[in-house]
Design brief:
By secondary structure, this protein is mainly alpha-helical. It has one domain (23-137). Helix content is 48%, strand content 2%. The chain contains six helices and two strands. It has helices at residues 19-42, 45-51, 59-64, 69-74, 81-84, 105-134, and strands spanning 6-7, 10-11. Strands 1-2 form a two-stranded antiparallel ribbon.
């Protein structure tokens, strides 16, 4: 996305007709690969031994140093703003906040791996919403011109 993609009243161009199909396909490919990564790396005794108990960051230290995101959640800190203070459309999606407790390198890795699974879950729900909204002809009608031609509205995920 770039600064010039959004325009007053919409966006420069609507999504490609194959967009939802392509996103669903990408989710399938990534999900299949994640299973392979877990098989090859997560269960690898060398990787597990090198990451377990290494680089421990306690919950208290994560909070004191303002370490958020996957590193903070690997330390047991429930700091996912999509759950604590939902913005955009996150309150409309069903997904889990991934939190581990040990704060070591293995937990930071696992939070990131599990977070990818949750992202796929969110993307699939967004595709479902886009398809449902896309059936509504009024939701896809163009809006008024905004100086640079006729902007087109993305299928709305928002309730108006």
């Amino acid at each position: 996305m770039s600064m010039s993609y959004s325009t007053i009243g919409g966006v420069v161009a609507d999504v490609h007709e194959d967009f939802i199909k392509d996103v669903r396909h990408a989710c399938d490919v990534i999900e299949k690969n994640l299973k392979e990564y877990h098989k090859l790396f997560t269960g690898n005794v060398i990787a597990v031994n090198r990451m377990t108990g290494v680089g421990i960051l306690t919950k208290e230290d994560a909070i004191a140093y303002d370490i958020t995101g996957p590193s903070g959640r690997a330390s047991g800190w429930h700091c996912d703003v999509r759950k604590t203070n939902p913005y955009s459309l996150y309150n409309e999606f069903d997904f889990d906040e991934v939190v581990y407790e040990n704060g070591d390198s293995m937990d930071r890795y696992m939070v990131r791996m599990k977070e990818m699974e949750q992202c796929i879950k969110i993307l699939r729900q967004a595709c479902d919403k886009l398809e449902a909204e896309g059936d509504d002809e009024a939701a896809r009608r163009p809006l008024v011109p905004a100086g640079r031609g006729q902007p087109r509205r993305l299928w709305r995920l928002h309730r108006e």
